[in-house]
Amino acid sequence: MRARLGRIAPPLLLLPLSACSHMELLNPKGSIGEQEKDLILIASGLMLLVVIPVMVLTLVFAWRYRAGNTKATYSPTWAHSTKIEVVVWSIPCVIVAILAVLIWRTTHALDPYRPLESQVKPVNVEVVALDWKWLFIYPDYGIATVNQLTVPVGAPINFRLTSASMMNSFFIPQLGSQIYAMAGMQTKLHLIADEPGTYAGRSAAFSGPGFSDMQFNAVAVPHDEFDAWVKRARSAPAPLVLDEAAYRDLEQPSFDTPSAVYARVSPGLFDSIVDRFMVGRMPALALEGGICTPDGLALQRIY
User: Fold this and answer.
1) pLDDT string in tens for the chain (303-residue length)
2) Distance CA 269, CA 151 (A)
3) Residue 63: is the preceding peptide bond cis (ω within 30°)?
4) In degrees, to the nearest 5, what angle opens at C-alpha 57 toward C-alphas 55 and 63?
5) How far apart are CA 230 and CA 234, in angstroms?
6) Residue 82 class from Cβ within 10 Å (0-12 exposed, 13-18 middle, 19+ buried)?
7) What pairing do the DSSP bridges indicate for beta strands 168-172 and 176-181?
8) Which pTM value belongs to this model?
9) Exposed, middle or buried by CB within 10 Å (0-12, 13-18, 19+), for 201?
10) In 3D, which of 135, 149, 124 has the Cα closest to residue 254?
11) Alpha-carbon dihedral of residues 161, 164, 169, 175, nearest 10 degrees?
12) How far apart are CA 2 and CA 5, in angstroms?
């Protein structure tokens, strides 16, 4: 009987984690995501070292010192115990010290602005959060997409991010870190996909009535398929061109926007989107869009 329980117990202990098997954060497909998963599990385990004993001891004390237990020691004048004080203070201090060292190291190792070390040439992607869709510009290839991100497996992806209006949060849970995209500012993020697949991307910050539509697919494919995809995008029979006029149309708020591929993109479009909010650097996009006043004051769009 004891041997039988020994075989059954380990699977039973894993049952609570089986409900998490579909969780994207615990099923990473990139090195950044793997490190963040380890950090979550280690930090959770350290905190459970305090939580679980407290919960168990609460039940033990309630049972042991119940009114009907006349065998329990009754000490109405008890006020201090050095042993208890040592346990109560030393264990949390050790856990906090371990967490402090862990957080210090991972904060630097997982800095979203830190480029990933790799022998493979990185792919640069410029991301613009629109209302309510995502624009991805590939400056090295002169193409762009809407609501679909295609990247090669094993190549670092260097993101530059901004927003055309309100703040958004760019997040691909299975690949790793989320980071904010803000109007008039530029943030950076470095990720990598280690396995082919389609991974869900989304906005992790509420940005208005179309927030639920701000989803996209991050498609990781082998290098030869990525090169073929770029070639097809450039040679589309009826190519879409993302110039300033096309961008103004795309920038208008829309719901449930279908994915699209632009065969050509105006050079410097991403920088002009960022600079439109800068005093003294207002290109045509800003002047005609009514974003900034002559005094350089940013105005909130009202849709």
Assistant:
1) 444 434 444 444 444 444 444 588 888 898 999 999 999 999 899 889 888 988 999 999 888 888 888 887 878 788 888 988 998 899 889 999 999 999 899 988 899 999 998 899 999 999 999 999 999 999 999 999 999 999 999 999 999 999 998 899 999 999 998 999 999 999 999 999 999 999 999 998 888 888 888 999 999 999 999 999 999 999 888 788 999 899 999 999 999 989 999 999 999 999 999 988 775 544 444 444 444 433 444 434 433
2) 21
3) no
4) 110
5) 6
6) exposed
7) antiparallel
8) 0.77
9) buried
10) 135
11) -40
12) 5
Please answer whether residues 192 and 118 qualify as being in contact, where contact means their C-beta atoms are separated by less than 8 angstroms.
yes
**And the tokens for 302?**
């009202």
Per the listing, tokens 């402090």 go with 100
What angle separates helix 82-109 from helix 31-64, to the nearest 10 degrees? 170
